[in-house]
Amino acid sequence: YAIRKANLGLENLENLTGATQEEKDIIKGQLLFFRAWFHFELMTYWGGLPYIDYALNSDEKLEFPRLNCHETAEKIAQDFKEAADLLPVDWDKTVVGQRTPGKNHQRITKVMALAYLGKNYLYAGSPLLNSESTGNASFNAEYCKKAAAAFAEMLNYVENGESWVKLV
Predict the structure, then answer these.
(1) Given a cut of 90, is residue 51 above it in pLDDT?
(2) Which tens digits make up the pLDDT trace of 67-105?
(3) I want to staple 73 with a disulfide (CB 3.0 to 4.6 A). Which of 13, 92, 124, 156 is the partner?
(4) Are 137 and 90 in contact (CB under 8 A)?
(5) Nearest CA to 115 among 161, 162, 83?
(6) Residue 3 in 3-state DSSP?
(7) Which residues contact 26 (CB under 8 A, 6 or more apart)?
(8) Which helix (H) or strand (E) covers residue 73, if one does?
């Protein structure tokens, strides 16, 4: 249901009238984040699965190839990366966020998208998901390096004070 709603939003974004480019970008970033996040949550429970990136029709046959965990993680990563490119680090520093200053801490940000991108890659690099994808029950170093890079980018925003998020 949630994936369908995100896909419907993405497919109909061009129909949004009266919105600035910033507003459209932020909406698209949120929709991509949630499409990726729901697929990520499903993958953590059931492993690789079909990645639904368009709104399915009610009369469409639901016969999609099951992707392995690495294939699923790559599609999730694409959406998280694009979401991170579109979302603000701090909503209060955007025109859109100035409508609700000081009340934007619950909104999806670039920092959150990068954190989940890192988590997605870290899971893909784990022995369990690597075993499902490749038959090798050891850590996948390439995915772990991708996770470290995503976390490093996210931490740069935090440590440079660009985000309201702070390390404990």
Answers:
(1) yes
(2) 999 999 999 999 999 999 999 999 999 999 999 998 988
(3) 124
(4) no
(5) 83
(6) helix
(7) 86, 87, 88, 94, 96
(8) helix 69-86
